[in-house]
Amino acid sequence: MALSLGVHVGQQNLPMDELRQLWRKLDQGGVDWISAWDHFYEAPPKNGTEPHFEALTTLGALAAETRQARIGCLVFYVGYRNPSLLAKAATTLDHITGGRFELGLGAGWHIWEATAYGYAFPDIGTRLDMLDEAIQVVRGMLTSERTNFNGKHFQVVDASCLPPPVQPRLPIWIGGLGEKRTLKIVADHADGWNAAYLSADEFARLNGVLNQWCEEENRDPATIRRSVNLTFNLGVDEEDVDQQRKQIAADWGALADRISGGSLLCTPDQAVERLAQYKAAGAQEINVALRAPWHSDALDAYLEEVMPEARNL
Question: In the chain, where does DSSP find H-type helix?
Fold first, then answer.
């Protein structure tokens, strides 16, 4: 199967008109996937000091503005919305797009925004329990005429979701890096796994862990799509790349080394080799993550030079 090349667009620091123009440009430029993220505040966190749009409503606009690319959210934190509501929203978005929507779910990490907005943010074990329940509720809502579920965190009673999605099986992605719980939930329930900002070597290692979980759960590993997000730090030349490296350090602080390891931090003529490393590590889909502001010439080079060559990998 050909390598899927997408763009993960953070809906921060851009007016909505500019976001809509960007989505159209990406869609017309041939990207395979366009996604938003599920935050109330900016990422990396800056205490809510940067403009930021809500995810579900943003996706409605993204769905209406695009014609070709698959769209989604990487990923919805299950503590912000009841999973049956998410199933209903996913179905609606699938109809707006004519069958191009894919749903991403995760256990969350942005405690600062959750606290600010008055949402409970329990320990990671509890949040993973919530994720495990949520994906079962969503799957039932998207595939069954009626869904009943009585979990510790979520309940639905004889719930219908009409009309059903356009797609016979609307794909559900799980995002996260946890080896003991997250990847087991992927093996148990998901259609795809998304990992963010990992080196190719670490992606390959975790990909192998997911395969082990599939073996334990009697799941064919080939039935799970594998994707990775890389921060977009493409520079037009080496001097620009050095500036991008400094910006990562300023934005991410103590996490800068890990983020740099999972970045497209290179020049355009080096980018295809970088993408090839992830394909060799098992990635079937690679999304570059855009955070405004970015270098517009570098983005053009990615769309017009890097992507066409990478499709031949």
Answer: 16-28, 55-65, 83-97, 111-116, 124-143, 182-189, 200-216, 238-252, 256-261, 268-280, 296-301, 307-310
8 Å CB contact between 187 and 216: yes
> Going by C-beta distance under 8 Å and a sequence separation of 6 or more, which residues neighbour residue 40?
48, 52, 54, 110, 113, 116, 117
pLDDT tens-digit series, residues 196-238: 999 999 999 999 999 999 999 999 999 999 999 999 999 999 9
DSSP class per residue in 44-76: S--SS-S-B--HHHHHHHHHHH-SSSEEEES-E
Neighbours of 167 (CB within 10 A): 17
Work out whether strand 155-159 and strand 147-150 pair parallel, antiparallel, or are unpaired.
Answer: antiparallel
pTM for this predicted structure: 0.96
CB neighbours of residue 56 within 10 Å? 18
Residue type, 266: C
Residue 245 phi/psi, 5-degree rounding, is -60, -40
What tokens were used for 42? 């900016």
